[in-house]
From TrEMBL:
This is TetR/AcrR family transcriptional regulator. Transmembrane segments: none annotated. Keywords: DNA-binding. PANTHER family: HTH-TYPE TRANSCRIPTIONAL REGULATOR RUTR, TRANSCRIPTIONAL REGULATORY PROTEIN.
Length: 197
């Protein structure tokens, strides 16, 4: 990598880190171009050069952390010897991510992310195609082996991830009626019952 490319990468990272920090500290309303530029110490021109707009910056930040989350889920699924163990691993990996990366989890579960996901869902999914394909393949293998119910893979994905996302949202919104550790202990068996063959 050339020195110029390295500087560009450092600048991009500074902007992404600053955007996350501003979002966590000030919420969606505080996430402005001027706040990101001020927090990062990077010029306005550099923000536009690297990301095109605040929307582009937010999209890149979401992609960065979604990729990391999907990577953790994929590792958990692929490291499991059975579909049941894979579900337990995926639930644990997701909730562990929420616990360890609260700021990024807040962003990924925010109304801002929901709106962007609804407006540009296909684009976001395509950007994560490799990870999404690995999860889909794991589901299809579970169906083919007779471990998972013969349902369309997107429905199995929804049955597995829906409850986990709901718990994550509750915890991130400050509702403390269920803890992440308790959910990681109880959810896998309940989810397994809904998707087993």
């Amino acid at each position: 990598m050339s020195p110029k490319q390295r500087r560009g990468e450092v600048t991009s990272d500074l902007l992404l880190d600053a955007a996350l920090r501003v979002f966590v500290e000030s919420g969606e309303q505080g996430l402005t171009v001027s706040a990101v530029v001020r927090t990062s110490g990077v010029s306005l021109g550099s923000l536009y050069h690297h990301f095109g707009s605040l929307d582009g910056l937010i999209g890149a930040l979401s992609h960065r952390w979604l990729n990391r989350l999907l990577s953790e889920l994929t590792k958990a699924l692929q490291g499991a010897e059975t579909a049941r163990a894979g579900i337990a691993g995926a639930v644990g990996a997701y909730l562990h991510f929420v616990q360890e990366h609260r700021g990024p989890a807040l962003l990924l579960h925010s109304p801002l992310a929901d709106r962007k996901g609804m407006a540009r869902g296909r684009e976001f999914r395509d950007a994560q195609e490799a990870r999404v394909s690995e999860v889909g393949l794991w589901i299809q293998l579970g169906i083919d082996s007779g471990e998972l119910a013969p349902l369309p893979p997107p429905l199995i994905e929804s049955l597995v991830m829906g409850p986990v996302v709901a718990v994550a949202r509750r915890v991130l919104s400050g509702i403390d009626d269920v803890g992440l550790d308790e959910a990681a202990r109880l959810l896998p068996e309940q989810i397994w019952r809904s998707v087993r063959a």
